Amino acid sequence: MKAALLLDGEAPKVKPEELGRIVMKAGIKVGRAGADFGIVVGGDGRFSRYGRTEKLPLLFVGVRSKGAVGSKAHLAQTGLDELPEALARIRSGEYEIDEHPRLRVFKGARVLGEVFTDVYLQRGDEGSCLRYKLRVSGNRVRFEEAAIADGVVVTTRAGSTGYYSYVDRIRGNMIEPSAFAHVGKDEVGVCHINPTYTERLGAGTHPLRYTVPWGSKIEISLFREADARLFGVADSRAGIKVAMGENVSITAGKEVTRVLTLR
Q1: pTM score, two decimals?
Q2: What's the CATH superfamily of 102-255?
Q3: What single-letter DSSP state applies at residue 150?
Q4: CA 38 – CA 32 distance, rounded (Å)
């Protein structure tokens, strides 16, 4: 077998040569060309990044931090310390490949890319909230919302322990992933970020977080000019600027992320 090593190019959690030694000691070759799977070492942000760009089956290896603001690596299949044992199990065939459908993101008619975990529209440097409308349409659902909030996140099931679960974290004593809200395999999660107001037009309700059927089309547009940025679909830390009159739409993607799951 052969594995590609996928690390943060600027600040890797482990030195490439050290990771290479671990992998080769387990009897697995190292290299990108002809690789059977990829080993992603890091936290959920790194997993999300490679999950939206790679076609190889991916083994997520967490380097969890004990610090308050460090990486928690909720998506990890194994930790760095347990990697030799995990690789031995892979060589023995004790694994499955789980296919996660991605979401495709557009700005206007232009495809920005696909995401494995989540994509979110959020305010940039301004102090004021975003004012936006969100429309959902599909075979089994159709509605429109107006919101005043810091932004909105749209997530797959893989991203449900991320930004989508911020609501659970602030409820108190619910910090473990098992306590987070989980999005089903055939669902897409939508969550307004720190809203001061939401309204589902014509329904008289004020939703914060919910799911819609997979395959629904989600459209977001500003109704007041603001410094709005789209994150999660590109590597830029500054995000992608979204102005009034520019429609962001999110639909089922055409690609899948293949995650290597240990038995």
Answers
A1: 0.91
A2: Probable inorganic polyphosphate/atp-NAD kinase; domain 2 (2.60.200.30)
A3: S
A4: 8
